[in-house]
Design goal:
The protein is built from six helices and four strands, in the order βαααβββααα. It has helices at 16-33, 41-49, 52-71, 96-102, 106-117, 125-134; strands at 8-10, 75-79, 82-87, 92-94. Helix 1 (16-33) crosses helix 5.
């Protein structure tokens, strides 16, 4: 499968373990609760973020995510028995395969939310937005 520029999303400055766990939890939540639902990715992210079961599981899986990222050098096929198909080794994530299995533009909405939540990083939200505008995102 080819990856092209329009499927690439900037993930520089994000905690990769946090990103991996978040992608996993949203995929799990989507597949178990909203698989037949016809809601937008933005609506789904808002619903899932308010779900207490997502935040409860997140803390327990962060260490596991850190180990998986080191062991697999950022190229994650399977994580906790779920095929995510994401490569988090660089500053860009090709979202094509993740979105194909979990919902159109879901990865972009998740990443946008993580960038907005980012407070104590060397990259600020305006820098991320500027970078994304420069690269047509």
């Amino acid at each position: 499968m080819h990856s092209n520029q329009e499927n690439k999303v900037y993930i520089g400055g994000l905690d990769k373990a946090d990103l991996l766990v978040t992608l996993y939890l949203f995929a799990l939540h989507k597949r178990t609760r909203y698989i037949y639902s016809d809601i937008s990715p933005k609506e789904f992210v808002e619903i899932a973020q308010s779900s207490s079961d997502l935040s409860a599981v997140k803390n327990a899986t962060l260490e596991e995510a850190k180990c998986a990222l080191i062991k697999k050098k950022g190229d994650i096929g399977w994580f906790r028995f779920m095929n995510l198909k994401v490569n988090l080794s660089g500053d860009y994530l090709d979202t094509l395969q993740y979105n194909r299995d979990n919902g159109q533009e879901l990865a972009e909405e998740i990443i946008k939310g993580l960038h907005k939540k980012q407070v104590s990083s060397q990259i600020t939200t305006p820098q991320v937005e500027s970078h994304m505008k420069e690269h047509g995102k």
